[in-house]
Automatic annotation (TrEMBL):
Transmembrane segments: none annotated. Belongs to the Fur family. Pfam families: FUR. It is found in: Cytoplasm. The keyword NADP does not apply. This is Ferric uptake regulation protein. Homodimer. InterPro entries: FUR, Fur_C, WH-like_DNA-bd_sf, WH_DNA-bd_sf.
Length: 139
């Protein structure tokens, strides 16, 4: 995984503490999709909390710079993830909000073929599949 300082420089963003810390959150967490609120809460427990408004602003800047990607899995709360891994499909439990992601060459190739057949030049793509996970069905 790249160094967050390098990523900021490559994106021509000034290296500031909040930008660094927030990027690190996305690199360190095993859960790759995080909301502004979640990030804010995780900083509250640390030694250097960051104001919620700053978290929102930095997430916006990092998204504009192409370092993060924004999703609205539930149609309401934006979740962000690092924008550097290849295309993947998101499976979303509409009950508990769990997000699982996977990559599949056949799906990626097929989507590219379909887009090409409509003469669409893909600049961005997202595949979301909604359902209910086993755990949510039990309760
Ligand atoms: Zn669930
Ligand atoms: Zn993802």
């Amino acid at each position: 995984m790249s160094d967050p300082m390098m990523l900021l420089r490559q994106a021509q963003l000034k290296v500031t503490q909040p930008r660094l810390e927030i990027l690190r959150r996305f690199m360190a967490e095993d859960h790759p999709h995080q909301s502004a609120e979640h990030i804010y809460q995780s900083f509250l427990k640390s030694n250097h909390p960051i104001a919620l408004a700053t978290v929102y602003r930095v997430l916006e800047q990092l998204t504009q710079a192409g370092l993060l990607k924004r999703h609205y899995f539930d149609g309401k709360v934006a979740l962000f993830e690092l924008n550097q891994h290849s295309q993947h499909v998101h499976l979303i439990c509409s009950q508990c909000g769990e997000v699982i992601e996977f990559e599949d060459d056949i799906i990626s190739t097929r989507l590219a073929q379909i887009a090409a057949s409509y003469q669409l030049n893909i600049v961005d793509q997202a595949v979301y599949i909604y359902g209910e996970c086993n755990r949510s069905q039990e309760v």
